């Protein structure tokens, strides 16, 4: 993996202009605040004649079943959420979640959309909507479920997971995301019986989780690693300034993110004046990475369902590359995965230069379990 600090020093030397380095720092200091923290919504669906979990949802969006797209004409993947076209996703997200589709890559298992604020990953039977800023992904749930029922013939909500870390600026959020209590109330109004959890320190770096009460075990192997980094050094975040690296490919090459997933197909996006998004797919597996580089709110997230028995090496490489002050990591697995016990999935003692702040483990009725791990540099204060 490319050493980003050395790479940036080489860039300075090649440019032979110390003003470029100073301008990069100025950009990070003066672009202004942006909420990098993402709201992560994952919904599993299946096709059944009855749909008890969504029977109370108002059908407040009209689905034109006469508008047949190239995907909806392909009955070989029916029923499937992938029948929803890019244009339809963009319409839903723009009007309800307050974000838009920028690009998409696909294979025979997944459609992966880069959004103006993070990512949307769509499988046949589930979608993962991850949005940052002041977006409102929960407000998009009703229209998405209506499309799923009427267009895709997926009428039963099998599992719902909604999670996020604490906002940097919670007062900037809008309904239904002004607090976790409001989010839980909104979701419970849709799905009824559910459970809400807070892991981590309430006076430090809490992580919030909502899930429906489901006693049916998911037989499909499933595991998700999410790494959330804050307090990142500006010399590394400078790689994600468009004036420093003119393309998203150059940004990505400078820090070596793609080398962690060498056989994936990638879609990259650089934002002006700064910021970066990545989606990668291989078969039924995905990875996404999003960077908010501003000094006052630096943030980087990486999420993947790539299966590993032990994610320690991936975590070590990311931490070594980006050198964050604080790392909040969650590993969500079910008993069918190759890592059936999440607490064994990361060995924090092997991550040199960091100390463990918290490590918490929780089991759920639907065969899933999750581990939250918070590590920091010794000098970092929560």
TrEMBL record:
**GO CC, one annotated term:** cytosol
What's the top EC group for this one?
Answer: lyase
List every position bearing Pyruvic acid (Ser). Answer: 118
GO MF term set: adenosylmethionine decarboxylase activity
Q: Which reaction does it catalyse?
A: S-adenosyl-L-methionine + H(+) = S-adenosyl 3-(methylsulfanyl)propylamine + CO2
Q: Which cofactor does it need?
A: pyruvate
The record places the active site at: 118, 132, 277, 290
Kindly list the residues the record flags as site (Cleavage (non-hydrolytic)): 117-118
Tell me which UniProt keywords the record has, alphabetically. Answer: Autocatalytic cleavage, Decarboxylase, Lyase, Polyamine biosynthesis, Pyruvate, S-adenosyl-L-methionine, Schiff base, Spermidine biosynthesis, Zymogen
The annotation note on the cofactor reads:
Binds 1 pyruvoyl group covalently per subunit.
EC number(s) given by UniProt: 4.1.1.50
Q: Could you tell me which pathway this protein works in?
A: Amine and polyamine biosynthesis; S-adenosylmethioninamine biosynthesis; S-adenosylmethioninamine from S-adenosyl-L-methionine: step 1/1
Q: Name one GO biological process term.
A: spermidine biosynthetic process
Q: Which PANTHER family match?
A: S-ADENOSYLMETHIONINE DECARBOXYLASE (PTHR11570), S-ADENOSYLMETHIONINE DECARBOXYLASE PROENZYME (PTHR11570:SF0)
The family note in this entry says:
Belongs to the eukaryotic AdoMetDC family.
What this protein is called in its record is: S-adenosylmethionine decarboxylase proenzyme
**Could you tell me which species this protein originates from?**
Oopsacas minuta
């Amino acid at each position: 993996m490319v050493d980003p600090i050395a790479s940036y020093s080489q860039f300075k030397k090649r440019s032979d202009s110390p003003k470029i380095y100073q301008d990069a720092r100025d950009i990070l200091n003066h672009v202004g605040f942006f909420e990098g923290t993402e709201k992560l919504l994952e919904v599993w669906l299946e096709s059944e004649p009855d749909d008890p979990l969504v029977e109370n949802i108002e059908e407040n969006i009209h689905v034109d079943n006469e508008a047949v797209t190239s995907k909806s004409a392909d009955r070989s993947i029916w029923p499937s959420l992938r029948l929803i076209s890019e244009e339809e996703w963009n319409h839903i997200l723009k009007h309800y979640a307050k974000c838009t589709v920028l690009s998409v890559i696909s294979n025979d298992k997944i459609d992966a959309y880069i959004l103006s604020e993070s990512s949307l990953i769509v499988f046949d039977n589930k979608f993962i909507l991850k949005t940052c800023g002041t977006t409102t992904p929960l407000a998009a749930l009703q229209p998405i479920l209506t499309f799923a029922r009427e267009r895709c013939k997926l009428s039963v909500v099998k599992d719902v997971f909604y999670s996020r870390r604490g906002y940097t600026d919670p007062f900037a959020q809008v309904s239904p995301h002004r607090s976790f209590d409001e989010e839980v109330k909104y979701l419970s109004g849709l799905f009824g019986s559910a459970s809400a959890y807070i892991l981590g320190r309430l006076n430090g770096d809490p992580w919030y989780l909502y899930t429906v009460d489901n006693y049916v075990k998911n037989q499909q192997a499933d595991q998700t690693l999410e790494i959330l980094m804050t307090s990142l050094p500006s010399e590394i975040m400078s790689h994600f300034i468009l004036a420093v690296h003119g393309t998203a490919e150059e940004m990505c090459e400078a820090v070596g993110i793609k080398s962690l997933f060498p056989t994936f197909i990638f879609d990259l996006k650089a934002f002006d004046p700064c910021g970066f998004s990545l989606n990668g797919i291989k078969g039924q597996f995905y990875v996404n990475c999003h960077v908010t580089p501003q000094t006052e709110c630096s943030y980087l997230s990486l999420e993947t369902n790539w299966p590993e028995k032990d994610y320690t090496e991936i975590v070590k490489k990311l931490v070594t590359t980006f050198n964050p002050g604080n790392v909040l990591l969650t590993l969500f697995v079910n008993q069918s995965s190759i890592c059936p016990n999440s607490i064994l999935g990361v060995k924090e003692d092997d991550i040199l230069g960091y100390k463990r702040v918290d490590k918490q483990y929780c089991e759920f009725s639907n065969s899933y379990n999750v581990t939250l791990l918070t590590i920091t540099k010794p000098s970092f204060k929560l």
